[in-house]
Amino acid sequence: MPASDFDFLHGTWHIHNRRLDKRLAGCTTWSEFDSSAWCKPIFGGAGNVDEFSFGDGESYGITVRIYEPTTDLWFLTWGDSGKGAMLPPLSGSFTDGVGTFFGEEEFEGRTVKIRYIWSKTTPTSAQWEQALSDDGGQSWETNWYMYLTRTN
Where on the tree of life does the source sit, at the highest rank (predicted)? Predict the structure, then answer.
């Protein structure tokens, strides 16, 4: 049942992050840091919300995910304490255990495509990645990996 696609994410997590220092700039330097998150179901299981702590005690992010049964798609939106607003939603679905979600966002004064991929999900671990495209989705630069390990 697609409404249960994100059930693996419910709980608390330790996250090892690997993030590109500069996006869409040909950068090859990565920074790594640890963080944590929790996720819980909403809407009777047809959605969830998580809070991400960057680990510095001052920076946080939130994701809201809602399943739309008439389109069989998930809609995801992210906001963080630095920007103080939710970004435009991404939409997508899971196929063969891999969730792929697409949207658009403003980056340095221009609109770019954004993609999230959820993969390698098990009861105790998962992987997430983010990529941007400034050529309409012809090519993608992955700029952030998160490796999640369940803590409860």
Answer: Bacteria
DSSP 55-73: SSSS-EEEEEEEEETTTTE
Sign of the dihedral defined by the CA atoms of residues 39, 41, 43, 46, in that order: positive
pLDDT, tens digit (0-9, with 9 covering 90-100), for 81-139: 888 889 999 999 999 999 999 999 999 999 999 999 999 999 999 999 999 999 999 99
Does pTM top 0.90 for this prediction?
yes
In the beta sheet, which residues pair with residue 2?
Answer: none
The DSSP call for residue 87 is P
pLDDT tens per residue across span 73-83: 999 999 998 88
Q: Which of 138, 116, 103 is nearest to 6 (CA)?
A: 116
Residue 15, beta-bridge partner list: 35, 148
Six token digits for residue 90: 């991404």
Nearest to 129, CA basis, from 30, 17, 21, 14: 17
* Pair 41, 10: CB distance under 8 Å: yes
Q: Give the residue extent of every domain in the chain.
A: 2-150
- 2-150 carries CATH number 2.40.128.20: yes
